[in-house]
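To whoever is covering the structure queue this week,

Two jobs came back overnight. Logging them here so there's a record in the thread.

Job A:
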Amino acid sequence: MRLARAIALLTCLAVSGCTATASDAVERGDDIRLSSGGAAELCVPVGSASSETDVVFAAEPLDNVSDEDIRIVSVRLSKSARVRVVKALVAPPTMREVLPLVDDSWPGSGVPTSAVDGMEQIPGALIPPRGEEEPPLLVLHLAATKDARVSAVEIDYTQAGSDVVRRSQPSAVAVRMPARC
């Protein structure tokens, strides 16, 4: 039974945005913090209920407050509807000036697609402990239809030298995607 749960959990973690059930619960951790800028609700217009629109969401700093490196295992969209993760990346802090918080295109209006080349893929992105510099940025390429929403983002991660997967506290940034904002 434990092996079946472990396989189910690993399968779930390999798929971004999967939903956990009581049988595959992950321990909560406080080593990485999202939404260090506080709570917010962002809006990006998504025109059609029948076809998906590419959306960039780059409003979440990944603040590693532990003393160990953290490896990102997966990204989860909490209380979401009509939206899915196409790609999850970690951008260096310098990309804050280039990427929009949210936009109805990928990787964002006026952002060259080559900007994505310097980002780390999730799963596997490594977040060092926070120093004096700004933390890296979580960048999500989403596919959404009209009236999509994401109430929060959660990060599943491991710390250096450990195979224990922990889940961050939910972010405080929500995104609504109606026909008009």
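Job B:
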Amino acid sequence: MEIILKNKFKFLNKVLENKVIKKMNSYNFMPVIWWTLLVVVLAYGSSLLKVKVVWRVGLVFLILNNICAYQIGKVINERKLKAWWLVLLPIVFVLVVLSHYAKYNLILIVTYFVFEMFGLMNKDFYRK
């Protein structure tokens, strides 16, 4: 199975084997940046693919980006990063919205921040 995956994803393997990428991934904070870049790619990619507004806001902005925000919170908690990493995704999303989308999408920043906080809680929703 592993051989099949290696053959199918030769390009991805070459990218991951790149010295620059390896050096970048050695830093503790890089998963936060990769998740944030995924949010940007999803936002601009859905626009380039001419996804209808309802699907873009519903699927990409509400569901997929909130999953990314939750994962960012988990990464910050697991890697014991400083709390200011929580504002990276909302700031980048503000820049994306201001550059291309309607201003009502700015309210989603609150939901991203809340989901990042859920990720930080690490399943401690109910404390005894």
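Note for Job B: Residues 28-121 form one domain.

Please reply-all if you pick these up so we don't duplicate work.
Q.
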